[in-house]
Amino acid sequence: MDIRETLRRNLEKIEEQITSACEQAGRDRGEVTLVAVTKSVNIEVAAALLELGVSNLGESRPQELWRKAAALPQARWHLVGHLQRNKVARTLPLVVLIHSVDSERLLRALEEEGRERNRVADVLLEFNLSGESSKHGFAAADEPRLPDVLAEVQYVRVRGLMTLAPLGTDHETARPTFARLRELRDRLAIRLLGTPHTLHHLSMGMSGDFRGAILEGATLIRIGTALFTGLPDVSTTELPKSLD
Ligand SMILES: *Cc1c(COP(=O)(O)O)cnc(C)c1O
From the CB of 159, is ligand 1 less than 6 Å away? Predict the structure, then answer.
């Protein structure tokens, strides 16, 4: 079966699951945007996704995003993984949203770059709610001081929050983590009323747990594996796998 047909079938199945989760949650399908995370596939597959109408594509590594965005500038690119400060300048002009602002230092680097270019960056704050030390992100304990931190930035607009469920969880067991992110968002949003930071978005849910995420209010789901099952070997990237 060719790449396009496999993708079309996978997409159809995922779309059914998104629709049914939305129904179960009493939410409109239009409230949830699928971001296809293309880190495990080559440019040809990413291009086929665009042709199938998936316009939001995500990458977890800045260098790989630069490479794919150069080939596919028509996509709406999302950075979903860690951004090193020395890669901010090159990444900012390429993306519609950075999901993974995981420290005050990065926030300040984005502010500086935005000020230089006189361009506002839309971002999400990444929270590590599982306490796994392998993960980047703000901790729940950072919540109280965030409004003061965000009052200092003019060229970064926080559009919401992002998290990854603990490793090895599924749709049901991941739900408490997603619920915590929503509750955190609700509290912060109130404290940020009247500022440019609106916190509309919740980026949560991947291939193994996106239905649970939709039930807890996800507006952006980041899906890779489920889209690409059954494809012939299309793995890509010029960098060694071990860097993932
Ligand atoms: C790879 C990745 C995804 C997609 O994960 P799948 O399990 O393949 O769907 C989502 N979010 C982030 C941050 C990722 O790195």
Answer: no
